[in-house]
Every structure is written in structure tokens, then in C-alpha cells.
């Protein structure tokens, strides 16, 4: 379980072993609406980390705090620090954050609808200052990863299917040559088969390119199948963290996120009460 | 004889349509990036005119005056963006639109205050020859000016669809947030679009004004060009040429065949009527982007 | 609405009351007496100013219902006003309709014209709609100028007969002031009642999210067209009053600049409140008047400046005011007024 120790006291805080470390951040919208409180997490190089939680828990806000995209929603990190590659990046310019190697794939497949697939990919090379040949190579890499995109390269992206659009936006994010990829609900509205295709692609990106990935998911089962570690976020706080094995074997998580009852399928009132109590202590 | 009339109508229609298109594309370049409909576009054309007149009055050659005014108008555009619109980032589109109404008032007033009252004729920058081709009286300055506008708009269309910077600006047109998430500098894109629009208004002024009286009424060209903007759609670049030609030719035809019956009213109302009808059928204009709304 | 301590509502009727305390009654009576006595104190020029400002208030309240309440931007309010003026002029001068009725004719005529331009709202949104209202301005101007002079007087305009009330001809500034005042008061009350009615709530729903309003069962197109109609009714009334006050109608009384100034009045006064419309209209008309008086004086100090500087100067000042309000005080004068009211309610014991 997550122990409530101030981040600064923890040994190894911000060490080189961590690519990203989020330390006790507090996020407010419009200076008043408190969304995240004391959220701490870290991602090591080459790791896939899942961020689980129910609706409104603050998962998306956490990602947007890291990528600084909360700024355009009048949000700010009001306390704590976000360090990436040894640099403080909280409340930084979102464009500079992309240049540093953190890119977010936003929720809901934001295709640039009136542009072709290839133009979508080209746009994302803006931050990298690559030369033409390098851009070409990157595009071919994306096509190798998602062959279906190569097939539709000149099609207007608004007319792609949901799954193809999801592949395109992930590929598009890769065009920025990220060290850390932030994915917000890649499974949203996709069929189970497509979800596993997408997650296999995510695992391949991690394996083959070595990109670290922080993925927000509702679908805990799929996320934990591929993630190395995970966090559970509720009401703007981290309530649980652990390796894949730890989380998969956790009774509460099984009960509430994987839908497998501790005692078969029967959910007793006592279990819920026990969980509620824990939520109260930690949340 | 009838062929001659048709040719005359086409000549007038295409050349005025091109001017409408030049003004219209100034609206669109800004709208695409900033989601702002800059209603003060006509005032930009007016200021550009006055700037050229002042520079030519100070002894600069017409072409130098054109180039210097282009630079000057780019700065004016940047100033408006920096002083007004950047401070309203995040406000609803309506507030931005109202702000440009304020800019319109300020520019219109300043233009009238600062510019001398002596009546003068704007020189024809692009040649003074007159020809008669197939029964149509053709002016060199108009032909060259039209060609210049076509080249300008074609160049802009190429820029936005094929060059890297242009693609980034098109991405900004699609969605500020998505563009930002990919590392595109949205603010810089918006600033560049205002500067580009300033340059466009200079070219539009130079072509439109050739041989006309200089006065503050120039600004109303923007309102006459407005039907072209809405007809073509707010996001298109190349499409304004087609929109401009449709409106220009339609207006010329109305002037030739309907005006004698209505004491000159038909040709003036035609563009607005066409625009209203077309918008009822196709609200996003001929080439504008259709945004799917999800509930 | 801010309420005094100890002022509770025990029934719906009670809750809807506009005037709740004795002090409010006192303030209202004081205001009424002030308005009635104003021409006796002000003198001819300022009485005329008040009359024109009152007419402006009527038009701006209409625009407030369209823009502030229903969220439909219109740059055609001045044209709608013009249509009202012309309808009234034709009724009064050509058909000889007696006094109060031409105003109704103007209002109804403008309403029809306005609803016509509200119809595209069924399909068009946002800027596109705002710009079609701009088309209303041009269609209005061109129709007047270019159509045969026998129809709308073309560029000569139409002369208005002197209004006669109970056998008394109205032809002094004071007379026009008292003629316009009841219309202004009625417009204010009508505005407040629309704001608080079922209609007003539907407008706000359409403004805030028309898609959500549609799925809630509100006929969005209907309400958009109705809001155009109401706005034009106010505009038409104002146009007819202006025609009487000016003693003639001419299209140059109803320019695009007027429409922009009306929008500026909303911004300066505050969006969505009747008080805002009134304060904004008074504030900007006052600025305009002062510049018209001060402009020529100022010209004397500016070397080389021309004498027709006043009008452009008005535009520069109003434009700057609009921009500054949008940036620094987007909620307008009404908000400042309410903040002041709250401050003085507690002053001098703020705790």
C-alpha cells in the first residue's frame, strides 16, 4: 500500500533511475477548484505504468499536469514538483515540454480531421527540428508499426474508423520522438479486439523503441496485462500502488476494478464496508 | 454582339471577384489560426491605402511604397494581435468578435483623423495601358493586379497545404489544444497569421485602389467582400478565388441585366441574397470545414 | 439578486417581487421624480440628449435580449431600428395614421423584418449568423437608396408629421422628452419581465448550450427566431420614436456604426442584465456627447487637424473603451454597480 511519507524524505527521490517523478502535486483549476491533492508517482526509463481509477478521479488531470496542457483549461500545479530527466517541468510551456520529450495523446482521439493521415504525422514533427530525411524515416517507422495507416496515408483523417484514428494519434505522438508517452484512455469506445491490438502496439513501442509509457485506463484488466507497475487514483489522491503482480493479486482491486469477487462472484456487504473504510483512511 | 456583352460581364466579374477574394482571404487567414473573425479587415485595407499614399507623397517610388506598406501593415497586424487579442485568450468567440469591432472603430477613427483631406487619385501601380480585346475595354493595371491576386492566393494555398510551417498553421486551425499537445507554438502561429493578413490587405489595397479616389470609404470593401467569405467558407484559402469569381460574375450579370429594371439595386443586393440562400443550404459555405457536433 | 437582511420570501409571489424594502420604494420614487423634473432643470440641449439616450436605451434593451440573453450576436440592430422608423414614417406621413399607432406599425414592421433575418439561425450559428445580420444592414441601406423614390423617399428621406396627443402638438424638446419617457420605462419593465419569464429561461438555455437545450425539448430554432423578433420589436419602437424626434427619417440615421455602438453599450454596461443595457447606453451616449462638444475645441489645439474630427474621435474613444472593458472588466458597469451597492450596504461597518 501507499505509505504517506513526504516525497522529499524518501530515499532516491528524483534520482537518475527515474525518468519522471511527480512529487506531492496539488492541481487547481481557476485558482480555486482543487482536483489533485498530494499525488506522487514515478516512471522509470523503459517502463509501462498504468494509472487506474474511476471517472472523475483525476487521471486525465494528472496527465495534463505533466504535459502542462492544463494551462489552457486555466489549471495550474499549485504545489509540489514534476521532474523529468532531472529538470523541473511543472507549469512549463507545453511546447517546451514536448521538446523535452514528453508527449500526451489526449482522450478521445483528437484527429486533425480535415488533414490527411500523413499531414497529421508531419505536423507532429514540428517540435523536433528534424531534417526531411529523418522525418521521412520516422513516418515509415510509424507505418511499419501500424500498416493500416500506410494504406490510408492520403485519406482525410476525419473519415478513418475509431481504431484507425487511435493508431494515427499514437503514431503521431511518436513523431515527436518522445522519451515518455502519456496515453489517455486509448481504449475509449473501441471494441475489445481493437483494444488488445492497440495495447499490443503500445507494448511493442515500449519494447522496440524503449519509450517509457504512462497510460491512463478504465479497462484495468487490459492495462495491467501490459503494464509493469500501476497506481490507483481516487478523488484526486493515490490510494494504491504496486507492481503488476501485486495489483493483480490485490483483493480490493480485483473486486472493484477487475470485477472478480474475492470469494467467487459473491460480493458481500462486509467487503464493501472494509473497502470503504480503507478509502476513507487513504483518501 | 451578345458574345461581346457576355465577355464584358465576365471581364468585370472576374476582376472584381479577384479583389473580393483578396480581401476575403485576409479574413480567412486570421480566422483559421485564431478563430477570430476580424471584422476590422476593411480598416486594414484602408490603413494600407493611406500608408501607401503617404509614402508615395514622401517621394518613394510606388513599388517601394508597396513593399514598405506591406511591412508596415504586417507590424500593424502584429500590434493588434499583441495589444488586443492575446489578452483575450480563452474568452468565448463572441468576445473576440466584439474586440475586433472595437478595433474597427479605433482604426476607422484614427484613419480619418490622421489622413489629410485633399482629394487625390491613387496611381495605377501595375501599368497604364488600355487595350480593346474582342470588344472589351481592358486595363493593364487591372489585368496585372488580378494576376497578382491569383498568384498570391495560389501561393497561400500552397503554403498552407504543402509547407511545414503552413501545415502547422493548418493544425492550429483545426484545434488549438491538439496542435499544442504536439508541440506546435499556437501563439506564434496566430501572430504570424495577423502579419500575413496585414500583407494581404496591402496587396488588396494596391490592386483595388488603382485609379480610384482615396478616401476612408475604402473600408467598406470588406463588407462587400463578406458574402465571398461566407460563400466560400471561413477555413478555405484557395476556395475564396472560386467564391470571389461566383460573386463577381453574378454581380456583373445582375448589373447588366437586372439593374436597368431596379434603378441599380439588384447588383448591390445580389451578393448578400446569394450568400443567404447558400448558407441556408450549406451552412459551412462551399469549402468551409464542417464540424461534427457530438451531444 | 442581493437582498437585505431579514427579507424573506414566504410565497412564490413574494419571491418574484421586484421591490422588496421601503428603501427601494424610496429610491424608486426619487428616481421617478428626478426623471419627471429633469427637463425643467436641464435646458433644451440636454433634454434632447436625454430623449435620444432614452430612445437608445429602448434599442439596446432589445439587443440585450438577443445578445446577452439568447447569445445571438447581431450587428443589424440599427437596420432593424431603421425599418421601424420607415414603417412609422410611411404610416404617419403617407397614410395619415394618428399619433401612437405609427409607432406600433414601426415595431411590428421591424419585428417581421427581424424575424426574417432570425430564420437563418435555424441552420447557421456563431459568426455566420452575426454576419448575416450584417447583410440586413446592407439590404436595408440599398433598398432605401436604390428603390424608386416614391417608395421610401430614396436619399431624400421622408418627413414626419408632428405628433399630436389629446389635441396638443408635440414640438418642443420637453414635449418629446415626456413623449419618449413612458416608452423607456415600459421597455425597462418589459425587459426585466422577459428576463424572469419562462421565455427568458429558454433563451438562456439556448445561449449556454443550444444542443443541450434542443435535447431537453426546447425548440431552439423557435426561440432564436422569437428572440430576433423581440429584439427587433424594441428596435422598431426606438426607430419610430427617433423618426418623430428627428421629424424625418433618413437611412443615414441608421448606420452600421450605430449597431456597433449598441454592442459596445452592452459590453460596457454588462451582458445579460437590463441594468447593464441602461447603464451602458447612458455611459456611451454621454461620452459621445461630450466628445461632440469637446472635439471642435480640441481641434484648436491640434495643428493641422481638420474640423470634422469629432466623429472619428468618437469612434476612437468608443473603440478603445470597448476593448478596455473586454479586457479588464468583461462584466461591465452593472457589475461595478452591484459591487458598489454591496459595499455601501455594509459601510461603514463591513463586519
Task: Characterise this structure.
- The complex is a heterotrimer of chains A (283), B (295) and C (351).
- Chain A is an alpha/beta fold and 283 residues long.
- Chain A folds into two domains: 10-249, P-loop containing nucleotide triphosphate hydrolases (Rossmann fold), CATH 3.40.50.300; 250-283, no CATH class.
- Helices cover 38% and strands 24% of the residues of chain A.
- Chain A contains eleven helices and ten strands.
- Chain A has helices at residues 59-67, 94-100, 117-123, 132-145, 147-151, 162-174, 192-209, 220-226, 244-249, 251-258, 269-282, and strands at 20-29, 33-43, 48-53, 75-84, 87-88, 102-105, 180-184, 212-217, 229-234, 237-243.
- In chain A, the strands form two sheets. A six-stranded mixed β-sheet of chain A has the order 6-7-8-3-9-10, with helices on both faces. A four-stranded antiparallel β-sheet of chain A has the order 2-1-4-5, covered by helices on one side.
- In chain A, a hairpin with a 2-residue loop joins strand 4 (75-84) and strand 5.
- In chain A, helix 3 runs parallel beside helix 6 (162-174).
- The model of chain A is unreliable at 1-16 (pLDDT under 50).
- Chain B has a domain at 21-217.
- Chain B is mainly α.
- Chain B has a two-stranded antiparallel sheet.
- Chain B is globular, with a radius of gyration of 19 Å.
- Chain B has helices at residues 2-34, 41-57, 62-83, 93-114, 140-162, 164-174, 176-181, 186-209, 221-232, 239-257, 259-262, 265-281, and strands at 130-133, 136-139.
- In chain B, a hairpin with a 2-residue loop joins strand 1 and strand 2 (136-139).
- Chain C is mainly alpha-helical and 351 residues long.
- Chain C folds into two domains: 39-254, no CATH class; 256-351, no CATH class.
- Chain C has helices at 12-15, 22-42, 44-69, 77-94, 100-118, 126-146, 149-152, 173-196, 198-208, 210-215, 220-246, 256-269, 274-301, 310-328, 332-346; strands at residues 158-159, 164-165, 168-169, 248-249.
- In chain C, the strands form two sheets. In chain C, strands 1-4 form a two-stranded antiparallel sheet. Chain C has a two-stranded antiparallel ribbon with strand order 2-3.
- In chain C, strand 2 (164-165) and strand 3 form a beta hairpin.
- In chain C, helix 3 runs antiparallel to helix 11 (220-246), helix 4 packs antiparallel against helix 5 (100-118) and helix 13 (274-301) crosses helix 14.
Amino acid at each position: 500500500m501507499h505509505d504517506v511519507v513526504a516525497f522529499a524524505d524518501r530515499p532516491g527521490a528524483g534520482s537518475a533511475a527515474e525518468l519522471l517523478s511527480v512529487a506531492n502535486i496539488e492541481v487547481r483549476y481557476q485558482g480555486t477548484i482543487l482536483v489533485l491533492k498530494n499525488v506522487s508517482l514515478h516512471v522509470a526509463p523503459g517502463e509501462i505504468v498504468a494509472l487506474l481509477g474511476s471517472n472523475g478521479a483525476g487521471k486525465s488531470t494528472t496527465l495534463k499536469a505533466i504535459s502542462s496542457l492544463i494551462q489552457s483549461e486555466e489549471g495550474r500545479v499549485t504545489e509540489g514538483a514534476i521532474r523529468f530527466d532531472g529538470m523541473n517541468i511543472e507549469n512549463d510551456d507545453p511546447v517546451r515540454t514536448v521538446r523535452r520529450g514528453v508527449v500526451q495523446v489526449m482522450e478521445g482521439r483528437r484527429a486533425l480531421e480535415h488533414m490527411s493521415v500523413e499531414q497529421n504525422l508531419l505536423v507532429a514533427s514540428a517540435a523536433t527540428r528534424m531534417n526531411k530525411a529523418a522525418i521521412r524515416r520516422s513516418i515509415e517507422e510509424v507505418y511499419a508499426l501500424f500498416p493500416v495507416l500506410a494504406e490510408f496515408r492520403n485519406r482525410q483523417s476525419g473519415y478513418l474508423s475509431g481504431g484507425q484514428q487511435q493508431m494515427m494519434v499514437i503514431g503521431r505522438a511518436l513523431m515527436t520522438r518522445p522519451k515518455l508517452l502519456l496515453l489517455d484512455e486509448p481504449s475509449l469506445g473501441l471494441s475489445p479486439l481493437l483494444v488488445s491490438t492497440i495495447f499490443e502496439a503500445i507494448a511493442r513501442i515500449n519494447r522496440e523503441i524503449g519509450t517509457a509509457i504512462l497510460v491512463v485506463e478504465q479497462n484495468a484488466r487490459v492495462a495491467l496485462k501490459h503494464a509493469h507497475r500501476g497506481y490507483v487514483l481516487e478523488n484526486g489522491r493515490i490510494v494504491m500502488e504496486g507492481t503488476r503482480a501485486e495489483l493483480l493479486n490485490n483483493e480490493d482491486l480485483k473486486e472493484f476494478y477487475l470485477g472478480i469477487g474475492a470469494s467467487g462472484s459473491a460480493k458481500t456487504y462486509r467487503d464493501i464496508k472494509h473497502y470503504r473504510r480503507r478509502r476513507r483512511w487513504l483518501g | 454582339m451578345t458574345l461581346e456583352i457576355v465577355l464584358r460581364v465576365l471581364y468585370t466579374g472576374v476582376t472584381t471577384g479577384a479583389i473580393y477574394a483578396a480581401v476575403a482571404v485576409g479574413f480567412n487567414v486570421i480566422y483559421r489560426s485564431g478563430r477570430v473573425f476580424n471584422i476590422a479587415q476593411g480598416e486594414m485595407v484602408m490603413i494600407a491605402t493611406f500608408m501607401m499614399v503617404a509614402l508615395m507623397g514622401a517621394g518613394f517610388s510606388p513599388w517601394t511604397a508597396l513593399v514598405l506598406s506591406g511591412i508596415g501593415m504586417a507590424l500593424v497586424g502584429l500590434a493588434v494581435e499583441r495589444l488586443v487579442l492575446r489578452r483575450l485568450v480563452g474568452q468565448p468567440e463572441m468576445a473576440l468578435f466584439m474586440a475586433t469591432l472595437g478595433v474597427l472603430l479605433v482604426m476607422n477613427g484614427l484613419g480619418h483623423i490622421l489622413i489629410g483631406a485633399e482629394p487625390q487619385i491613387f496611381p495605377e501601380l501595375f501599368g497604364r495601358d488600355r487595350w480593346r480585346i474582342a470588344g472589351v475595354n481592358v486595363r493593364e493595371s487591372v489585368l496585372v493586379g488580378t494576376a497578382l491576386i491569383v498568384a498570391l492566393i495560389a501561393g497561400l494555398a500552397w503554403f498552407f497545404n504543402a509547407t511545414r510551417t503552413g501545415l502547422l498553421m493548418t493544425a492550429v486551425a483545426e484545434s488549438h489544444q491538439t496542435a499544442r499537445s504536439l508541440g506546435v507554438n499556437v501563439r506564434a502561429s496566430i501572430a504570424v497569421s495577423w502579419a500575413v493578413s496585414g500583407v494581404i490587405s496591402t496587396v488588396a489595397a494596391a490592386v483595388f485602389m488603382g485609379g480610384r479616389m482615396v478616401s476612408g470609404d475604402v473600408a467598406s470593401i470588406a463588407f462587400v467582400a463578406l458574402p465571398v467569405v461566407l460563400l466560400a467558407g471561413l477555413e478555405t484559402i484557395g476556395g475564396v478565388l472560386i467564391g470571389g469569381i461566383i460573386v463577381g460574375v453574378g454581380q456583373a450579370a445582375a448589373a447588366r441585366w437586372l439593374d436597368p429594371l431596379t434603378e441599380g439595386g439588384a447588383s448591390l443586393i445580389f451578393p448578400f441574397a446569394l450568400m443567404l440562400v447558400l448558407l441556408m443550404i450549406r451552412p459551412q459555405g462551399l469549402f468551409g470545414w464542417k464540424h461534427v457536433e457530438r451531444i | 439578486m442581493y437582498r437585505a437582511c431579514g427579507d424573506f420570501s414566504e410565497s412564490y409571489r413574494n419571491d418574484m417581487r421586484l421591490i422588496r424594502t421601503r428603501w427601494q420604494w424610496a429610491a424608486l420614487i426619487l428616481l421617478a421624480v428626478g426623471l419627471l423634473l429633469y427637463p425643467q432643470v436641464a435646458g433644451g440641449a440636454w433634454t434632447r440628449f436625454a430623449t435620444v439616450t432614452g430612445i437608445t436605451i429602448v434599442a439596446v434593451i432589445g439587443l440585450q435580449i438577443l445578445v446577452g440573453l439568447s447569445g445571438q450576436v447581431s450587428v443589424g440592430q440599427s437596420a432593424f431600428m431603421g425599418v421601424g422608423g420607415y414603417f412609422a414614417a410611411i404610416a404617419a406621413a403617407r397614410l395619415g395614421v394618428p399619433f401612437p399607432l405609427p409607432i406600433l406599425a414601426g415595431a411590428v414592421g421591424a419585428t417581421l423584418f427581424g424575424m426574417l433575418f432570425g430564420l437563418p439561425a435555424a441552420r447557421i450559428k456563431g459568426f455566420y449568423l452575426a454576419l448575416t445580420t450584417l447583410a440586413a444592414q446592407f439590404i436595408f441601406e440599398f433598398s432605401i437608396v436604390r428603390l424608386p423614390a416614391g417608395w421610401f423617399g430614396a436619399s431624400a428621406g421622408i418627413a414626419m408629421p408632428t405628433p399630436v396627443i389629446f389635441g396638443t402638438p408635440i414640438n418642443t424638446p420637453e414635449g418629446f422628452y415626456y413623449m419618449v419617457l413612458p416608452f423607456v420605462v415600459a421597455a425597462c419593465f418589459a425587459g426585466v419581465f422577459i428576463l424572469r419569464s419562462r421565455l427568458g429561461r429558454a433563451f438562456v438555455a439556448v445561449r449556454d448550450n443550444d444542443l443541450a437545450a434542443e435535447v431537453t425539448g426546447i425548440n431552439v430554432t423557435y426561440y432564436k427566431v422569437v428572440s430576433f423578433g423581440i429584439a427587433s420589436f424594441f428596435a422598431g419602437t426606438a426607430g419610430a420614436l427617433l423618426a418623430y424626434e428627428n421629424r424625418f427619417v433618413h437611412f443615414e440615421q441608421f448606420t452600421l456604426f450605430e449597431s456597433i455602438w449598441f454592442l459596445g453599450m452592452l459590453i460596457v454596461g454588462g451582458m445579460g442584465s437590463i441594468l447593464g443595457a441602461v447603464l451602458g447606453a447612458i455611459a456611451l451616449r454621454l461620452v459621445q456627447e461630450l466628445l461632440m462638444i469637446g472635439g471642435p475645441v480640441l481641434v484648436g489645439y491640434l495643428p493641422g487637424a481638420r474640423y470634422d474630427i469629432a466623429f472619428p474621435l468618437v469612434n476612437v474613444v468608443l473603440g478603445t473603451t470597448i476593448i478596455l472593458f473586454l479586457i479588464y472588466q468583461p462584466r461591465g458597469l452593472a457589475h461595478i454597480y452591484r459591487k458598489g451597492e454591496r459595499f455601501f450596504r455594509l459601510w461603514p461597518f463591513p463586519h
